[in-house]
Amino acid sequence: MSIRRRIVAGWAVLCLAGLAATSVLEAGPPAGTPSSPGSEPTPTDTYTVDCRELADDIAQARAEAERERREALDPSAAPRRPSATLRTMVVPRECADEFEDSGLMTR
């Protein structure tokens, strides 16, 4: 068998193994099998979210970033290297009204 055929055969085996593993993972546990104790929390778990606190934290972070930007643009300030920070935050949908009220988000 030539090298090319071996490479193609190896690639095909890996693809088939990946497809088989994907189908097994997507199938999930059988209906009669109890879930393992280390599984993810169920959607029925409850949690509380303080939307006002999240909105305040984001507003404070934005204000601080704006202050740093203005300081960096000030000609009388000592030259310094600008810092860039990107922060991503996921908030629950229940907080959408609070974020709109505080001007942090528009729908």
TrEMBL record:
Keywords: Signal. Residues 25-47, 61-89 are annotated as: Disordered. It comes from the Bacteria. Residues 26-44 have a biased composition (Low complexity). Residues 63-73 have a biased composition (Basic and acidic residues). Residues 1-27 form the signal peptide. This is Secreted protein. It comes from Streptomyces chitinivorans.
